[in-house]
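Q: For a teaching session next week I want to show students how multiple molecules come together into a single three-dimensional assembly. I've collected the sequence lines for a complex. Could you give me the predicted structure tokens for the whole thing so I can convert them for display?
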Amino acid sequence: MSETTIEIQDLNLTRKDFVPGNEVRWCPGCGDYSILANMQKTLPVMGVKKENYAFISGIGCSSRFPYYMDTYGFHSIHGRAPAIASGVKLANPELTVWVITGDGDGFSIGGNHMIHALRRNIDMNIMLFNNRIYGLTKGQYSPTSLLGAKTKSSPFGSIDRPFNPSAVALGSNATFIARALDVDAKGLQESIKRAQGHKGASFIEVYQNCIIFNDGEFEAVENKATRPDNALFVVHGEPMIFGEENDKGIIMKDNHPKVVHLGQEWSEKDLLVHDETNQIITNLLLEMTFDPTNPTPFGVLRAVDAPSYDEMMIDQIEQVTKVKGEGTLEQLFYGGDVWEVK
Amino acid sequence: MSETTIEIQDLNLTRKDFVPGNEVRWCPGCGDYSILANMQKTLPVMGVKKENYAFISGIGCSSRFPYYMDTYGFHSIHGRAPAIASGVKLANPELTVWVITGDGDGFSIGGNHMIHALRRNIDMNIMLFNNRIYGLTKGQYSPTSLLGAKTKSSPFGSIDRPFNPSAVALGSNATFIARALDVDAKGLQESIKRAQGHKGASFIEVYQNCIIFNDGEFEAVENKATRPDNALFVVHGEPMIFGEENDKGIIMKDNHPKVVHLGQEWSEKDLLVHDETNQIITNLLLEMTFDPTNPTPFGVLRAVDAPSYDEMMIDQIEQVTKVKGEGTLEQLFYGGDVWEVK
Amino acid sequence: MAKKVIRINEATIRFAGDSGDGMQLTGTRFTEATAIVGNDLKTIPNYPSEIRAPLGTLAGVSAFQLMFGSQRVFTPGDLPDTLVAMNPAALKVHLKDLKKGGNILANANAFTDKNLKMAGWEANPLTDGSLDGYIVFSMEMSKLVGKALENSDLTSKGIERTKNMFALGVLFWMYNRPVEPTEAWLRKKFAKNPSIAEANITAMKTGYNYGQTTEIFTTSYSVEKADLPKGKYRNITGNVAVAYGLVSAAKQAGKELFLGSYPITPASEILHTLSGLRNYGVKTFQAEDEIAGISSAIGAAYAGDLAVTTTSGPGMALKTEAIGLAIITELPLVIVNVQRGGPSTGMPTKMEQSDLLQAVLGRNSDARIPVIAAQDPADCFDCAFEAARIAMKYMTPVILLSDGYLGQGSGPWKIPDPKTLPEIVVHHPDVSTRGEAGFMPYTRDENEARPWALPGTAGLEHRIGGLEKENITGMVSQDPENHQVMTDIRARKVENIKKDIPPSVVHGDAKGKVLVIGWGSTHGAIHVAVDRARAKGQSVSQLHLRWVSPFPSDLKAVCDNFDEILIPEVNSGQLALLLKAELLRPIHQLNKVRGEPFRASEIEDKVNEILG
Amino acid sequence: MAKKVIRINEATIRFAGDSGDGMQLTGTRFTEATAIVGNDLKTIPNYPSEIRAPLGTLAGVSAFQLMFGSQRVFTPGDLPDTLVAMNPAALKVHLKDLKKGGNILANANAFTDKNLKMAGWEANPLTDGSLDGYIVFSMEMSKLVGKALENSDLTSKGIERTKNMFALGVLFWMYNRPVEPTEAWLRKKFAKNPSIAEANITAMKTGYNYGQTTEIFTTSYSVEKADLPKGKYRNITGNVAVAYGLVSAAKQAGKELFLGSYPITPASEILHTLSGLRNYGVKTFQAEDEIAGISSAIGAAYAGDLAVTTTSGPGMALKTEAIGLAIITELPLVIVNVQRGGPSTGMPTKMEQSDLLQAVLGRNSDARIPVIAAQDPADCFDCAFEAARIAMKYMTPVILLSDGYLGQGSGPWKIPDPKTLPEIVVHHPDVSTRGEAGFMPYTRDENEARPWALPGTAGLEHRIGGLEKENITGMVSQDPENHQVMTDIRARKVENIKKDIPPSVVHGDAKGKVLVIGWGSTHGAIHVAVDRARAKGQSVSQLHLRWVSPFPSDLKAVCDNFDEILIPEVNSGQLALLLKAELLRPIHQLNKVRGEPFRASEIEDKVNEILG
Ligand SMILES: Cc1ncc(C[n+]2csc(CCOP(=O)(O)OP(=O)(O)O)c2C)c(N)n1
Ligand SMILES: Cc1ncc(C[n+]2csc(CCOP(=O)(O)OP(=O)(O)O)c2C)c(N)n1
Ligand code: SF4
Ligand code: SF4
Ligand SMILES: [Mg+2]
Ligand SMILES: [Mg+2]
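A: Of course. Below is the structure for the complete assembly, covering every listed component.
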């Protein structure tokens, strides 16, 4: 776990500093509103100057996000936000760069840039709004839609097996992976803070309800009544407990996760303890995602330290400059065999 | 494990049937030669008619492969082979489709098509020639090149953290993952057979030596002398044993793989048993890849059953046709509100 | 009181309301009823933004326009005669387009202070006199349906939602259309929920009766049947027509249809339509992006399907590299671009015909491709069919250009008799074509097409790809001479298609002062403008180009008969550039890049200007 | 015996051998020595294939050609005077190009039966008389270096490898070039392995002495210093020159240089060169593909770097969509396309200038962009600098067209004095530009450029993107009027650049019969052809276009002074199409799509044909 205690300077910012004048244009009831509100609430306390934020997005309902943040913003083209953000960060490493994307933008057309950004570990925070549908184009299935989903482009049910985005992130060697829920303010804010504090690429998957084209997709965990029994909120170093009564937990059995009931046979100390730095643990949590016999895990699923690309770039420039001296045009031009015509 | 016993019909094919007239144009000593030879040796015994093979590739040294197979072949454009192959298979499900790609072709520019093809589980066999370099364009680092690699485009050492291609495949929900070594004929042939026998998308990562631009990258496992101590060949249901003297094995300790020496403290029955169907086991093997304290795993790392996209497509067409009847143009044209002008 | 019925030749109606008010549906129902009456018509929807904007805002207004008439109708009309405004925002946005003296039908209940403010009205225009000069029918639609449905099971919200049916009913009365088709349609649509069906029917009839009985309406209009060619008709949007054209071509060629596509406005409906046709053997593959869309289609073409990819501008841009592959491998492929406003994401829901140069010239290297453009929604069927036929005949990718105006707009389609559709003869070689030296995948037939040899055919194993290939043998070749030969063949293949283009038809006299040349969806506006000009005695004719690459062989001869050429385009002059290079003569341009189609009057004005 | 020294004005030499024979290195060393002597020169390498083909095959032949002279040299020469053939395959491939009566220097030891057969010779051409008409110097190079180095530590394979240095030594003697620079270079290159250095030096000197002493050579040639402008020179390839031009522009603008790129032949050397310049603050980002390459550059431009992306045709195709984004966001960006043969993968190592229309017109929507094209390797420096300057001055992406012939070819570069390079003034607004209503990111300066406000600047927070924006305010706007305004501004920005284009310079008389117009790398061949024609008294002049979009404002006036226009292009007539549309007059075309540059003689012939 990246145990970096982040020194936070109070800049006297408030939520209002991040709210621009223009109207928000999502459908009434869309899960995006809550995500936006929590972002606007969290940034003021992060100790980063407002002008040092850059929000980069692709295309989709979710990707309109930058228009609703009174920071620097770039609503770019479909799927390319992580690549654009890479250039932004390398050009100005002082900036705190956020990438806002959707399951179509980030995992359909933009899948390649996504996995490469995570692999390279460029310092940016990628937030995926996963509503398992293409919202903006009015309701086709996405690469995270479940098998059988009936949508505009799959009237007889989708035959496309879905990605588990956080698993793709893990496979791509990502150093930070969290999962949050649009309606869970606490979880969202915690993820935002931890992600921004993490050096390197951070990935947050947010389950987001699209009330128009895919309403109720995450009902089991969105609904306050059923959430405790269907969601597992993991905390580094703590046993995996969940349930309305905190009466259930996760063990590893035959190299698979398994739900047990605490009480007679099982007690807390038998349970798996979450370890953000352990790949096997993260993998086990990810395996639970689509498994109806297990709860859906939320929280910081993985956080490991690794040098970030931007940092290594700066280092390399420094190192080479130390050895060779700062380059001048004279040196450059006269680097080859030179002759003179008199 | 897909325990499908494949019924193999003898078609009286020989290696020669798969060797076309034209000259092979890889550099002398390139690892590609061995891979080609083993493909040509294996296909005749697979019970598939020669004309039913289609080899689809992108661009790269490796992607020249189709020119050297006397089957149907398509040397397409950089990175797009899995997408082209998807269309080929859906248009004609009778074909046995192979995709031949390189670490640049398949995991740099083509990364997105790769992960989507694996996710969808379209029945095709993808073979990645991983030489950790761009061969054809004369030696730039690739997304699998190790940190620090000095290449034409990274004269001061690469600062790009690499992918572990098989891990990306796992993260993409792939149903079959194998790893083989260019110089290991037995392992290669076994992987080819198993992959082709697998229903759905199969992924084979082949470590391949590029003698010109990245010679010796896999020395530890390529060299017959050092291989036994550096490579772990896994077999489903068997304990993970390796070493010149078969004296070492793998256990899981604190949710990490660990090498132990057999003899006093540890015996064979303490060792992890390979299970192709278990995600945690596959993940643990993948974790060993870049870890110098562990051997590099080879063999079939994962194989699980899942319906293939092409199969589901055929099913859906059948189902819908059963319910609605085979569509005619009359029905189509007269589907809306029709009026007549007399 | 007996009400007046005035017979008119044509009318243009616009329905406007909040995105939630169901204006598209209302418009479509009116269209259907109008079609059944036998009028000719064209329609066009107009959504301002891709996301639902907050209720009652200007950004949230959604509109639908149709023009219908007793004569041929070529456009959805310029300025409406009648505007239905379901709220103040709708009135605000659309009032400026209404014809002077036109009708306004408004839902007075929606003109609340809050709504008025949101729409930027200082006072209520229905009452403060600002609509003087128009004929205003201010109706308490919400209240009236509330009354009519007070005994229904619907919630009050549900009842409120039927107000669009009230408005529709009024219009049915006003333009003398039958309510029965909509009644039947509602019963079918809400079969599982009869109380909703009945409520809507009641609301509609209430509206109809309101028109008939209340005194605020004194006049209704009748529009006689149009003199359309005999036959069966249905209303069709361009996107659905493209889908049907492709399915038909596949059937006629004995092929399965494969679509590799990625959703994008305004092309998605082609994907939606085809994905519903599994029982026609249609395989739709929703790819991860546009590149995979076309790549999968190239793979399917290679393996023997009639392969298609559909998209709009930005997606077309992404396909550029793969189009080059289809060209060099000489595989049949139909590429549909339903154009929209740009550059970049631009104006995604607005129309523009600005991808012409991209289609004709926008690739690396000398990489020509045939390009066909549809002129109206029904023509999308014919063009799609023709594109597929040419692709398979000449073994070449073909681009079909449509646009948002055609794709989402609709018009009556004279349903062809499937039995009279042209057959498409496709030949796949078998081992008998294999010579001594093996199979030759780049031999040429009389059209210079190469054989379409399918994987799975014993004895024809061969390799194709993106590297230059030797003519005849298909071996990789970097030989200079061969490259020239192949470059020339590829160019000639496109030229050859001229043989399939019928002689040009000039609308109007074949000789005269001004020839107005157009392509794509400007057809209707130009047609109307030319007819009006000719009616005034001006010497003006129209030439419409269906194929924009290659041009018809008689193009120059046709143009030589006119003193002046005018090209109106919804772009900055793209066809004009191509024709200037082709004809080497000056061309008058009329360019408009506003995300809107031309009005016939704009073209008329320009013609007047040219004629001095 | 005293040998003759003949003074000649120019010579063309081609080195050809197996890929493993080190022909590129040999050619480069000869070039360096020739440059130091003070001749003007141009070079061009020629690799037949991207993969090493088997030893001794025709496919494995690698060549390098240079032309040098005592006058200005504009091309690497057409047909060589002297051919070095290290094996039978090299002779087979290149003999057809050798001038009648030219010299052949062959390594007789490589003409074994096996090698002869592999190269398709029936008998040994060195001995069977088939080279009658040429001057053949058949030397046992392998044996001679073996002898000379019998006491060295090198393996026999290592010794064999020095035979190229023997050949080089012979040529040094033959053309009177100094051996010392190569001696010094070898010592430096093999500093860690002196025995290799010494062996190569010995081999070279053995060759030199062989020329001087043996009787088979009777004549050597001297080529006087060229009358080049005074100054310091070095030899440079176009790709390196592009890299240097960009580094220089960044320095002059006080910017860091960011390159987002994906390797591709023949553009990769720009990436390679820049990746070695970390101590110049150059950030190279090898992206996952071309789309990420340009996207990262767009991001870097937004954040304030001088941003660049480099590629070749197929990669350019992939960047199409993102170029649209750069256009609509009005960000400065340099896009370099080192063109190669197509379509598709085509002929990756061969030259072609067929991406012109793609550069100028190949995007969805009306999306114009300035396009500059380099004329020779050294000019790549100036064009790269100019492209960067214009990009930042007008806030626009700019395309720079080079090609494989320029990128990998070389010529002397007159090294500019860094102090006299133009300064590039860049202005980034700060909070003081923020008005009452907030910051306006789409206000316009006198060039209609918008302000380059950088993230990190307090008070200027704003949003940009690919949706159409309202002029001045930069708010998302789908307003028709605004879209027209913005479309026009974007077009005008490109037109405005005409102000930066100096008046056209006609080479030859300003009035006459034929004007030969060219762009890009045809410059040299046209120049030579025009000079030769003029020497014969023909009325021919040359106009070279550096900017191909926009055209210079005096273009029409210049052309009006000539009866005929001829455009030679290594494509099927792309500039010709643009100029026909621009000038509305007939144009003679000379097109060649063979993966090879023009020979001056081909242009001369065409001029003769036109002049009758
Ligand atoms: C190149 C390109 N292709 C397609 C589109 C159309 N398009 C816009 S957004 C979108 C999908 C959005 O889905 P997602 O990212 O999940 O966002 P959501 O709307 O669900 O938040 C698509 C297909 C486009 N704008 N550009
Ligand atoms: C669109 C496009 N971009 C770039 C290239 C240049 N290119 C050809 S192959 C290649 C990389 C090949 O690497 P890999 O796939 O690892 O194959 P290898 O040669 O190592 O077998 C590149 C960058 C291309 N042909 N097309
Ligand atoms: S369509 Fe769905 S995701 Fe988009 S704004 Fe509406 S509710 Fe939200
Ligand atoms: S460059 Fe490397 S990968 Fe390519 S053929 Fe040569 S050895 Fe093989
Ligand atoms: Mg979504
Ligand atoms: Mg490789």
